[in-house]
Design goal:
The complex is a heterotrimer of chains A (331), B (800) and C (205). Chain A is of the alpha+beta class. Helix content of chain A is 29%, strand content 21%. Chain A folds into two domains: 50 residues, Uridine Diphospho-n-acetylenolpyruvylglucosamine Reductase, domain 2 (2-Layer Sandwich), CATH 3.30.43.10; 219 residues, Uridine Diphospho-n-acetylenolpyruvylglucosamine Reductase, domain 3, CATH 3.30.465. Chain B folds into three domains: 90 residues, Aldehyde oxidase/xanthine dehydrogenase, a/b hammerhead (Aldehyde Oxidoreductase, domain 3); 316 residues, Aldehyde Oxidoreductase, domain 4 (2-Layer Sandwich); 167 residues, Aldehyde Oxidoreductase, domain 4 (2-Layer Sandwich), CATH 3.30.365. Chain B is an alpha+beta fold and 800 residues long. Chain B is globular, with a radius of gyration of 27 Å. Helices cover 28% and strands 23% of the residues of chain B. Chain B contains 23 helices and 33 strands. With 205 residues, chain C is of the alpha+beta class. Chain C has two domains: 83 residues, Beta-grasp domain (Ubiquitin-like (UB roll)); 67 residues, DNA polymerase, domain 1, CATH 1.10.150.120. Chain C is globular. Classes of the chains: A alpha+beta (331), B alpha+beta (800), C alpha+beta (205). Chains in contact: A-B, A-C, B-C.
């Protein structure tokens, strides 16, 4: 293999407005690359696997940064750093689930540069894919992680489709649990999509992790007032307590009235190519009391349909237990 | 205990200020006029043959200066490691280098080099290589070790089928030894247990990648490198380079960690040296993290089996140990042998057999890593000892204590003596400070999803040597200059050992200077700066050099003041009459007299038994002051054991398999403590590495493609601040070793195995004695065990 | 399943072409420009002229004019353009923390930050902490007193992270310090001493 540490040259473009950014992306089309905090992108460049000719950096666009009220909702600019998400007083008070999830990302230095938008848009961490092998996701015609002998301890339980990588984001499940809306701008306009629809699996498009097409920009994430101050739970199981991706993470938000669960949203990461909303679990909880019994049912429902690979069977009890804990914690 | 002025007191090593200000220079911090960059093209496959190289396009690029291939370099004989290879034996092995005016150009040029590689069979798991018809890691064979020739050895199908599933097959070993009658021991034993085990290989991942800068001037090579040793690196380095030691100016002021991986020289340092010669320009090889993983060395893994026979009081009557070692492609490690010696020492079995099989693998080259072989053995043995204790109804510290060597203990098949052993005292002190007995009530206690477990482990390494040289100089400025041939890798032992010279001369520390950092500083021949050797060995050399200076001071004083030399004492920077302290000479004056006298006094005449390196250094310094220079011929009889007893309390989350280390205490038997604060750093730093080995770190390879998964730090997973207890404790027995002038023994190696074993034992304890026989115990393995689910691998599978 | 259709494979299922693809990556369309080591360019520019590449960085309180390529990281600028080698390259992937510097008083990985992106913010490196006369910063002083470093390679990054922490939290608990320094790996495992040192620094400041 050749050197894997010096970035090939590219042109760095630093637009000051979203409109300019969109125009540049349109012009550069497939040669272009959107750069947020750079925590994922620069690795790809240094590995010389991804070689864009033009990198559109969004740091100069003030409108993409900050946490602000939008009516009764809260809007977070996509370029808001994870540290800002973690520390923002309003966010902590009303959507503590997201603040907690942000705090579990990597390390302080990464959270200081890494953005919420970047965290939800980061690419798969499958080690075969990152090694630069020509797998399906990389445009090739095989999956190295799903051979009879592959080492796939970190890989998926659900929704495998030629690719068995998992969603590595810690904030994504929290955003799904909070019923966040993702604002996507493109040359033709703007659309708002529910968090769970923002993420796509290989079945939809194996080369992408999200709905974003070349030329699209994720500009903001909106948290609905409806889920403010909900009871919530976040937990991440990883090998290390810093700088690690989740083996499984779980985010849950619930509304409990009179000791009964009225609404519940639970999403998990690390188990499928996209963050997964566990609708069967949610349904099982409605009208129930959050306690041991409901937790047992939820844990069983959480792993329905799981199809483990050779080395990741442990994720079944791990997922079940984390969901169990999430439900138990609501009591 | 002797009343020391310096030994046992904290002090500030001279390199610390540079480290906190950023001024400390590591190899890649140096710049040379006209410097260019080399970059490596490395093997994408675990074993192959370079059929063709076409670099024409690359060499035609503007800014590209040249190419270096194996053909430009000296040939080596298998199994020695080449500098660049045409038969790569692991993924990432350097095949060729390109130099360019900048790194990006070099990288771009490498993209345009066309290499045709023919894939050859490869092997990652030693047991696969031992099967009949199994692949060999090298075309020349599959078994090799230091002083064991490269050969092909296979076991029979019967060897493999003779054992239970998960048990280590035990065909004919490459080496074995025994003492006593083990069969009789097992017959007499009240309890016989046997276990197979595996410890996975892992990368050293020193924080500083092994970058090097080289240039030639006036026929001399100036090389800035990253090695643990300074003096000891010179012979292997000059051998690799094919130059005379006098023609090598080697600079290594600071080394960013090594842990054995940079013990002396390594072949990749020679790449910029040869390239600089070819191009006539300074060449920097900046080694990347991925390269550091690939060729920056690794600890060999063990697949092993042990059978132990105990008397009902816990005494070990017989031990039978078999170690299969994954030796990488070059097999240059003794870990498998150290395993046998470890068991023979730490548990003093009345009879013992050891068998070893060092197998070559197409994985990164191996080297010693912090207690090489012993740490793996601690990890393998301590949980088995615990199992025996449970079956015998004995306390787990007690069973270790009854077997632990006293100073009259022995080691190895020849039952070699020890200089001292205070392991029993270390166990006692640890049990007392950890409150081991009272804490037993917590064992297995569940709170919510968390279960508490306690563990104790023992780490060992032979920690010292003798026969090297010391060199000190008292200059006319009245200061004592202690020349240090040891390297500076972060243990501060180069500095702490210098205090033995100052102590012997009664010299105030502020009037001492340590001269270190490169061959240009005229350093003596000293031991390898690895394996906890420095403290014992170099306190001796510095002591003998200081005693030589002391004799010369006394003789000069006798000449000047009158009287017998023996009537004079030294101290406070003076040599003076014992009876009449006012009469005497300041060191400054004595240094001037020595210069005037010449001969042996100023280093014009040197002892005949000095190593040539010391003689060269002394000759360069001759005439500049009063020289103390001597070879360490102090008596020494026996192996110098350094020990550490580790005590851990963990909580195992039975819903996630995650382990939190809540408390840790490490207790060293390192003889006299010479630098307390730094000893603490060594005991606890070693523990952190031990935690990594117990819970997190391993090589992972895809078995089909032979490619590694754990090349970065995020994938190798060394422990972070949040993976270790926020408070850790240490202690030391502090009893002096009688064969060292200040009573000191090495300390740095044993803490790793002690901590790793303590944590693994604590996990077992939390889970009611569950035995894993494996490291690391990642959370998936623990969770599967708790849930009663099968593990997804076979018991002896490796690189997973 | 035959994933290797159309490829020559060895007996080990090894696709030679797959491997060789790793060796001969598609050539990037970049052009070479002049480079002199002392001449301010680490690699090739991508269309910008030298004048356009010049930036003014504020490093350790000083204005520094420097020729910076578009793809250049702050780590390379500091080490190879400005001679500030106290900031170390441990991994170049944001995985070790050896390259930690303060940008606007906030700790970041210099290896994972493009210089052009942060050029208008004040940058502090390990060299910028001591007072002009050489008097150590209290955090540095504490690291000396507690014998924080072992090999010292990670030390500048540890100190910078600690300085960054103390700017926003003057009296952190030991656990808070560990959390703030969790992005700085120490392979020597000197964490306990480093925690002692930062705690000591809170007394010295």
């Amino acid at each position: 293999m050749a050197a894997r540490d010096m970035m090939p040259a590219f042109e760095l473009l630093q637009p000051a407005t979203v409109e300019d950014a969109l125009a540049l992306l349109k012009r550069r089309d497939k040669d272009g690359w959107v750069l947020a905090g750079g925590m994922d992108s620069l690795d790809w460049f240094k590995d010389r696997i991804k070689r864009p000719k033009a990198v559109v950096e969004l740091g100069r666009i003030g409108a993409l940064r900050g946490i602000r009220a939008r009516g009764a909702d809260l809007e977070i600019g996509a370029m808001t750093t994870l540290t800002e998400v973690e520390r923002d007083a309003t966010l902590r008070e009303r959507y503590g689930l997201l603040a907690q999830a942000a705090r579990r990302v990597a390390t302080p230095q990464i959270r200081n540069r890494g953005t919420l938008g970047g965290n939800v848009c980061q690419d798969a961490r499958c080690w075969y894919y990152r090694a630069g092998l020509p797998c399906y996701r990389a445009g090739g015609n095989t999956c190295y992680a799903d051979t009879p002998t592959a080492i796939n301890r970190e890989h998926c339980l659900f929704e495998a489709d030629r690719c068995v990588a998992v969603s590595p984001s810690d904030t994504a499940p929290a955003l799904i649990a909070l019923d966040a809306r993702f604002v996507v701008r493109h040359a033709g306009g703007e659309k708002e999509v529910p968090a769970e629809e923002f993420f796509i699996g290989p079945k939809t498009d194996i080369t992408r992790m999200t709905i974003l097409q070349p030329g699209d920009l994720l500009t903001a994430i909106r948290l609905p007032a409806a889920w403010a101050n909900a009871k919530s739970y976040f937990e991440k199981a990883a090998d290390r307590n810093a700088w690690d991706f989740p083996l499984v993470n779980v985010a849950a938000a619930m509304k409990i009235e009179g000791g009964t669960i009225r609404q519940a949203r639970i999403a998990v990461g690390g188990v499928a190519p996209r963050p997964l909303r566990l609708k069967a679990v949610e349904e099982s909880l409605l009208g129930e009391q959050p306690g041991k019994e409901a937790a047992e049912v939820a844990a069983k429902a959480a792993v329905w349909g799981a199809r483990p690979l050779n080395h990741n069977q442990y994720k079944i009890p791990l997922l079940a237990n984390l969901v169990k804990r999430a439900v138990r914690s609501m009591a | 205990m002797a009343a020391y002025k310096l030994i046992g007191k904290d002090f500030l090593p001279p390199d610390v200020i540079g480290k906190v200000t950023g001024r400390a220079k590591f190899a890649e911090d140096f710049r040379a006029e006209g410097m260019v960059f080399a970059k490596l093209l490395r093997s994408p496959m675990p074993h192959g043959l370079v059929r063709r190289v076409d670099a024409a396009q690359a060499l035609a690029m503007k800014g590209v200066l040249g190419i270096l291939t194996a053909a430009d370099l000296p040939k080596v004989t298998a199994p020695a490691e080449p500098i660049l290879t045409s038969e790569p034996l692991y993924v990432g092995e350097p095949i060729l280098a390109i130099a360019a005016v900048d790194e990006t150009t070099a990288a771009d040029a490498l993209d345009r080099v066309k290499v045709e590689l023919e894939p050859l069979p490869f092997v990652l798991d030693p047991l696969e290589s031992l099967r009949p018809g199994g692949a060999n890691a090298r075309t020349e064979g599959n078994v090799a070790a230091p002083n064991l020739k490269l050969q092909t050895l296979k076991w029979s199908a019967r060897d493999f089928t003779a054992v239970r599933e998960g048990e280590l097959p035990r065909g004919k070993p490459a080496e074995e030894w025994h003492y006593g009658d083990i069969e009789a021991g097992f017959r007499q034993a009240d309890l016989v247990i046997e276990e197979s085990f595996i410890t996975q290989a892992l990368a050293h991942h020193a924080m500083e990648p092994r970058s090097a800068l080289a240039y030639w001037q006036g026929g001399k090579l100036f090389l800035h490198g990253s090695t643990q040793s300074l003096a000891f690196s010179i012979p292997p380095l000059t051998r690799i380079l094919g130059i005379e030691p006098a023609n090598l100016h080697y600079v290594s002021e600071n080394t960013g960690g090594g842990f054995g991986s940079k013990a002396a020289a390594y072949t990749q340092m020679a790449i910029p040296a040869f390239f600089a010669k070819k191009l006539g320009r300074p060449v920097m090889l900046r080694v990347s993290r991925e390269e550091e993983h690939d060729f920056g060395r690794s600890r060999p893994g063990f697949q092993g089996w042990v059978k132990l026979g105990f008397r009902k009081d816990g005494r070990l009557l017989a031990a039978d140990l078999y170690i299969v070692q994954s030796g990488g492609p070059y097999g240059a490690v003794n870990d498998f042998r150290n395993a046998g010696r470890h068991v023979s020492l730490v548990y003093q079995p009345l009879a013992m057999r050891w068998r070893g099989m060092p197998v070559l693998t197409n994985t990164p080259p191996r080297s010693a890593q912090r207690s090489p072989g012993e740490t793996q053995t601690s990890i393998a043995m301590d949980p088995v000892i615990d199992k025996a204790a449970r079956k015998l109804g004995l306390d787990r510290v007690a069973i270790r204590h009854i077997n632990a060597p006293r100073s009259d203990g022995t080691i190895g098949p020849k039952r070699e003596p020890l200089t001292s052993s205070f392991l029993p005292e270390a166990l006692e002190l640890g049990a007392a400070q950890f409150d081991w007995a009272a804490k037993q009530a917590l064992s297995g206690k569940r709170t919510g999803s968390k279960v508490t477990g306690l563990g104790v482990g023992i780490g060992y390494h032979a920690a010292g040597n003798s026969g090297f040289d010391g060199l000190v100089l008292i200059r006319p400025d009245g200061k004592l200059y202690i020349h240090a041939g040891a390297g500076n890798l972060g243990t501060y032992s180069y500095a702490a050992t210098a205090r033995a010279a100052a102590e012997a001369l009664g010299m105030p520390w502020e009037r001492c200077e340590i001269v270190y950092g490169g061959t240009g500083r005229h350093v003596p021949w000293t031991c390898i700066q690895a394996g906890s050797n420095t403290t014992f060995t170099i306190t001796r050399t510095n002591h003998v050099a200081a005693m030589d200076a002391r004799r010369k001071l006394q003789e000069i004083a006798a000449r000047e003041v009158g009287g017998e030399p023996a009537a004079f004492e030294v101290g406070g920077g003076r040599v003076f009459l014992k009876a009449e302290p006012a009469k005497g000479l300041a060191f400054a004056e004595a240094a001037q007299r020595a210069i005037a006298l010449g001969g042996k006094y100023s280093g014009q005449e040197l002892p005949k038994d000095l190593n040539p390196m010391t003689a060269r250094s002394a000759a360069a310094l001759a005439g500049q002051g009063l020289m103390g220079v001597a070879k360490d011929t102090l008596p020494r009889n026996g192996v110098i054991p350094g020990f550490c007893a580790g005590y851990a309390l963990v909580e195992v989350d039975v819903e996630t398999g995650q382990v939190e280390i809540k408390e840790y205490l490490g207790v060293a038997d390192c003889g006299t403590v010479i630098h307390p604060k730094n000893l603490g750093n060594q005991i606890l730093g070693g523990a952190v590495q031990g935690f990594g080995m117990a819970l997190l770190e391993k090589h992972v390879y895809d078995p089909k493609y032979g490619i590694p998964a754990t090349r970065g730090l995020a994938t190798s997973k060394p422990p972070t601040y949040l993976d270790v207890p926020v408070n850790m404790r240490w202690a030391a027995v502090g009893k002096p070793d009688p064969q060292n002038p200040v009573g000191a023994k090495g300390a740095g190696e044993p803490p790793e195995g002690a901590a790793a074993a303590a944590v693994l034992c604590a996990i077992s304890d939390a889970l009611g004695g569950a035995h894993f026989g494996r490291s690391p115990l990642t959370c998936d393995i623990v969770l599967n065990a708790v849930e009663g689910r099968p593990q997804p691998f076979k018991p002896l599978d490796t690189n997973i | 399943m035959d994933a290797s259709k159309g490829r020559s494979r060895s007996s080990h299922g090894l696709s030679r072409r797959a491997f060789i693809q790793g060796v001969i990556a598609a050539g990037a369309a970049v052009s070479s420009v002049n480079y002199l080591f002392r001449g301010n360019a680490l690699g090739q520019g991508a269309g910008r002229g030298v004048a356009e590449r010049l930036l003014t960085l504020t490093v350790n309180g000083q204005q520094r004019r420097v020729d910076v390529l578009d793809q250049e990281t702050l780590l390379m600028t500091l080490r190879y353009k400005l001679g500030l080698t106290g900031t170390k390259i441990g991994c170049d992937r944001g995985e070790c923390g050896n390259c930690t510097v303060l940008i606007d008083d906030v700790p970041v990985y210099a290896c994972s930050t493009l210089t052009r992106i942060v050029h208008d913010a004040p940058i502090t490196t390990i060299e910028g902490l001591a007072a002009p006369g050489g008097r150590l910063h209290p955090v540095q002083q504490a690291f000396v007193e507690e014998l924080g470093p072992q090999c010292g390679f990670c030390t500048p990054g540890q100190i910078i992270s600690a300085v960054g922490l103390l700017k926003v939290n003057r009296k952190p608990t030991r656990a808070e310090i560990a959390e703030a320094l969790a992005g700085n790996v120490c392979r020597c495992g000197a964490y306990d001493h480093y925690l002692n040192a930062v705690q000591r620094a809170t007394e010295l400041i």
